[in-house]
């Protein structure tokens, strides 16, 4: 008869009768959200998830940390109804324990909380006339296809006066959504005055460009240099409970350097954040700033100027996305 000697020390092996059933030790912690096997789980802001312990080695207690979710912690094995009310990514950790010890598993940026996709607004900043309709504040029917965005027909918000006859500084315009319903938002041209306005942006001549030629053609301009300063557009009455994405278009034909710069100010979380756009002969490119939280009074200011080495900045139009 062959004898096998098994060295047994403490609780390293679990014995049942004459059978050794395997190595005993601290748990090996693992978990998932709502049964997903993905490395990151996405959810819309305000939504809830259920979490499931999938640890091995028979843990007997659990300690969850859900970051900025509600509730933020739990000692249940499988907690349910964890609610996420802030956009962005959230790291989740679980510590499991048995009589042999504890083990922690942390999944960094495991939950991605997306904003609610709400409404969009399109603004023709220059208030240029469409087919002679210069005094019509809202005009629908044109299609704008920003680079990287889906094609859609929009209601264009326009100032009620043609800037070629004077920049409407201080004029208020209540903006409509792209479905033609009225919003609470107000757009103003703030002092100091824009330096001027142009009607020679880059166009195709037949509205076959990425943007309608009428929008490409007209722009507010800033060529202040003594001193250089922002020319300001102000959005007011914004919802402080949501974030916004702003997309900008600038176009100018047949010039040298023309790098426009758009800077967020006004007491937002993105103050001093800026993007630049090469506006020279531009017919399709846009730039965006997303995740902008308005000031506590519901304001976003947009500074328009020009980058170093460029003597002039342009803004023709912009898109406002709620929840962006």
Could you name the key traits of this structure?
324 residues, mainly beta, Immunoglobulin-like, six-stranded mixed sheet, six-stranded antiparallel sheet, 1 helix, 26 strands, elongated
What does this structure look like?
The chain is mainly beta and 324 residues long. The chain folds into two domains: 13-114, Immunoglobulins (Immunoglobulin-like, Sandwich), CATH 2.60.40.10; 120-322, no CATH class. The protein is 2% helix and 44% strand. It is built from one helix and 26 strands. The strands form seven sheets. Strands 13-14-12-26-20-23 form a six-stranded mixed sheet, with no helix packed on it. Strands 15-16-19-24-21-22 form a six-stranded antiparallel sheet, with no helix packed on it. Strands 4-11-10-7-8 form a five-stranded mixed sheet, with no helix packed on it. The radius of gyration is 29 Å and the shape is elongated. The chain starts with 12 loop residues before the first strand and ends with a strand.
What is the share of helical residues? under 10%
Coarse morphology: elongated
Largest sheet: 6 strands, mixed
Number of strands: 26
Which stretches are poorly predicted, pLDDT < 50 over at least 5 residues? 4-12, 129-143, 147-153, 161-165
Number of separate helices:
1
**If strands are numbered along the chain, what order do they take across the biggest sheet?**
13-14-12-26-20-23
Q: Structural class, please?
A: mainly beta
Query: What is the first-to-last residue Cα distance?
Result: 76 Å
> What percent of residues are in strands?
35-45%
Q: How many structural domains does the protein architecture include?
A: 2
Mean pLDDT figure: 80
